[in-house]
Amino acid sequence: MPPAHPFDDDKLREECGVFGVIGVTDAANFVALGLHALQHRGQEAGGIVSYHPDHGFNSARRFGYVRDNFTKASLMETLPGALSIGHVRYSTAGSKGQTAIRDVQPFFGEFSMGGAAIAHNGNITNADALRRELIERGSIFQSSSDSECIIHLMARSLQRKVPERMQDALRRVEGAFSVVAMTRTKLIGVRDALGVRPLVIGKVGDGYALSSETCALDIIGAELVREVEPGEMVVIEEGKITSHRPFNNASSRFCIFEHVYFSRPDSIIGGRSVYETRRQIGVELARETPVEADLVCPVPDSGTPAAIGFAHESGIPFGMGIIRNQYMGRTFIEPTEQIRNMGVRLKLNVNRALIEGKRVVLVDDSVVRGTTSRKIKEMILDAGAKEVHFRIASPPTAWPCFYGVDTPQREKLLAATMSEEEMRDHLNVDSLKFITLDGLYRAVGEAEGRKKDCPQYCDACFSGEYPITPADMIEKGFEMKAAE
């Protein structure tokens, strides 16, 4: 894979995406379309497994975009059958930055009762301990992925059927996960007890689909049935859905950053439009952090809905002061030092005629390291802006995520080492303001804001309050936030 473009290197990485279909002819083609719609959740690699009674299980795993691999008839013809699952990947665990084909999901295993394949979105926070235990008992791992632990735990279960073996395995697992799995006759979906990662059910013709997001159901013409509930396992077979509850009851702690950045704006989460939630974030941000300015400008593309909401609430005109090169792609081969130094300008360009002479409010979804924010500010000033004010549609990201999102080490997060005023000075802008946690909660529909003793979402990247203990990271020296 080519190196990440510097613009993307200053963003949080969007974990993974999973998709599965049962009961439709050429199911793998539907899965390829679904994965294409979920490409924003992982661009390093993708994989598809299918099953056909006459051909058994077949799989294909490839590096790069879905469109460059799983649109080729010669490949898709090797994946026959009416049952298929797939996965798009960004490495949040395992060999980060040096992805091996053996780490690409779905993973497949032959058990005494038949084969099964599994695709996992999230992160297992006790994977290191589980791996050591399994290796000591004779397991031979083929990948560096935490997800492979589930396959080995299933293999050691004494249960007779795959769903029961999966329940056994997942009860040993700590962390956040949405799992899509398949046997010869079943499509299975599971969410962890807190429901940190998303998973939805769709109806397509006489069959069903499981997906990380509703936007992938739209692309195959599927109707949204419902979300898989936190702590629920659904088993789909012969046109019927059965529900199981393998975990102890717990309060939902869905990842609030899905609303802010990870999910596509045309998806639905908890019955709410992601686009509308992001627009409302901008409304709350304008109420909390008013500013005198001439133009509200989004940092494309994820900052756009919030900027629209900010402009509407503040009465400041909205304008596309920054234009994104739509043909840039996520990565760029940088052949010379001269091109490399162009940095963000390869992907973003300032609309000089709109910016010149104006006091500009830049609305972005987050500030991670701050490197891109500084470059964008310089571009805006170079275009003749009088003032630059940053408004950020999420609270300061001060803590790393251990639940399926690749974030820098804490000391590399700007908000972990600087106050808001120090960050303003570091970025050298006229003002810098973040939405508050309460404001973010109001924007996602919690009128009373955040409940301090029992938050409604996982917001650990902002608050440092981890709903699931990151056991492996603590073993490696990570220090949790001290109790207040």
The dominant shape is globular
Low-confidence stretches: 1-8, 92-97, 329-341
Q: In the CATH scheme, what's the topology name of the largest domain?
A: Glutamine Phosphoribosylpyrophosphate, subunit 1, domain 1
Termini gap:
44 Å
Secondary structure blueprint with pairings:
Blueprint: H1 6-9, E1 17-22, H2 27-37, E2 45-52, E3 56-63, H3 73-76, E4 83-89, E5 107-111, E6 114-124, H4 127-136, H5 148-156, H6 162-172, E7 175-182, E8 187-191, E9 200-204, E10 207-211, H7 215-219, E11 223-227, E12 233-237, E13 240-244, E14 254-255, H8 257-262, E15 268-269, E16 272-273, H9 274-288, E17 295-298, H10 304-314, E18 322-324, H11 337-340, E19 348-350, H12 352-355, E20 359-364, H13 371-382, E21 387-392, H14 414-417, H15 420-427, E22 431-434, H16 437-443, E23 457-458, H17 460-463, H18 471-475
Parallel strand pairs: 14-23, 17-20, 20-21, 21-22
Antiparallel strand pairs: 1-4, 1-10, 2-3, 2-4, 5-6, 6-7, 7-8, 8-12, 9-10, 9-11, 12-13, 15-16, 18-19
Helix pairs in contact: 5-6, 9-10, 9-16
